[in-house]
Amino acid sequence: MKSTSPRAAASIAVAGVAILIACSLLPPTRMLSNSEQGDIKHYYGYAKLTLDDQLAIVAATGLALALPFALVAPRGVGHVGWLLVGRPLHIESLGGSILLAAHRLGVYEPTIYISVGASWDLAGPAARAVAIVGSLAEGAALIAVWVILHAP
Q1: pLDDT for res 4
Q2: Which of 21, 46, 73, 77 could form a disulfide with 41 if both were Cys (CB 3.0 to 4.6 A apart)?
Q3: Which residues pair with 114 in a beta bridge?
Q4: Whole-angstrom distance, CA of residue 20 vs CA of residue 147
Q5: Can you say how many angstroms the Cα of residue 144 is from the centroid of all Cα atoms in its chain?
Q6: Torsion of CA 51, 54, 56, 58, to 10 degrees
Q7: Exposed (0-12), middle (13-18) or buried (19+): which is 87, by Cβ within 10 Å?
Q8: Beta carbons of 39 and 94 less than 8 angstroms apart
């Protein structure tokens, strides 16, 4: 494993956090555009923004934070994304809890190991399948919230 300078590691960490924060702000941005507090904002001198304007501001801010890191170290940013996608199923996650409950019922035999980050993780095909299904369910839940908030 190559050694990484502290500055490079900190840069990648800041980029990852900035990307996650920008993405997590999209649903609240949508809620604000539907809220009745728009009149209050207008009262205090803020112009009312359309949803497209709000999303453009959030996307531009996220891009402004992430783009320098992607330009300086594109492989590093890609590596962080790959680590997030390929990370194991933690035992304290919802999916891990379900598998451990199945173990208590005698229908599943877990393989538990301590990963590089010193977290306790589950291994095996069942853990991988539960991790994938859990990620898809989280994505579907975000899309459902977005659709529900978008409804007139």
Answers
A1: 60
A2: 46
A3: 120
A4: 21
A5: 16
A6: -140
A7: middle
A8: no
Helices (H), 1-150: 6-24, 26-34, 38-43, 51-72, 74-86, 94-104, 125-150
Residue 112 gets which letter from DSSP? E
Give 147's strand partners. Answer: none
Task: Please give the model's pTM, rounded to 2 decimal places.
Answer: 0.54
Residue 69: is it exposed, middle or buried by C-beta count within 10 angstroms (0-12/13-18/19+)?
Answer: buried
Q: Tens of pLDDT along 74-102?
A: 898 888 878 877 788 888 888 999 999 99
Helix (H) or strand (E) holding 111: strand 111-114
- C-alpha to C-alpha distance for 150 and 51, rounded to whole angstroms: 10
Under DSSP, is residue 122 helix (H, G, I), strand (E, B) or coil?
strand
User: CA end-to-end span of the chain, whole Å?
Assistant: 53
Cα–Cα dist 135/132, whole Å: 5
| Tokens 């960490």, located at residue | 13
